[in-house]
Amino acid sequence: PKIAVFASGTGSNYNAIMHAIECKELHAEVALLVSDQPTAKVLEKAEKYETETFVFQPKDYPNKASFESAILQALQHAQVEWLVLAGYMRLVGKTLLEHYEGKIINIHPSLLPAFPGLDAIGQAFQAGVKVSGVTIHFVDEGMDTGSIIAQHPVLIEEGMSRDDLQTAIQKVEHSLYPKTIQQLIN
Ligand code: GRF
Description:
The protein has six helices and seven strands, in the order E-H-E-H-E-H-E-H-E-H-E-E-H. It is of the alpha/beta class. Strands 3-2-1-4-5-6-7 form a seven-stranded mixed sheet, sandwiched between helices.
């Protein structure tokens, strides 16, 4: 199946997905990388893997419906079946939700419903919880509210810094996301 990855930032999860495809652990094709940030690091990674990209700036469109229509056209042209959000820093709107109902997933660096929204790792660290983790969930109109597909805990041990926690969470993300995508789409 053809998937599109949506990313606004570094793209380490995009990288992990591409790696899993190369290693034949994930049987899918990333037919499109969608980004709302023309300077995002993920675009350099997409170039290396020769993934087709759709890059846009929301400010060039009158509203969300109009940039999502442009995205939709690119997705349909590439015959994409699944939308995989990996650090896409926007809420998905009606246009994409209606066309890809039940086919949009996201990864979030906490055990939802704890710590939704921005900087979930910092939030968990500040709160002093002893367990956080990673959640993969279906996307709905809310912020990190869709139904949960998979979760994996990460222990926050004595003396761990915020950066240590981030490293531990990312390590889990990079194995859990490809694995879960594989289970879901095939
Ligand atoms: C990840 O921590 C993911 O959980 C969150 O955004 C981050 C993206 O990181 N939604 P990267 O761009 O894949 O490195």
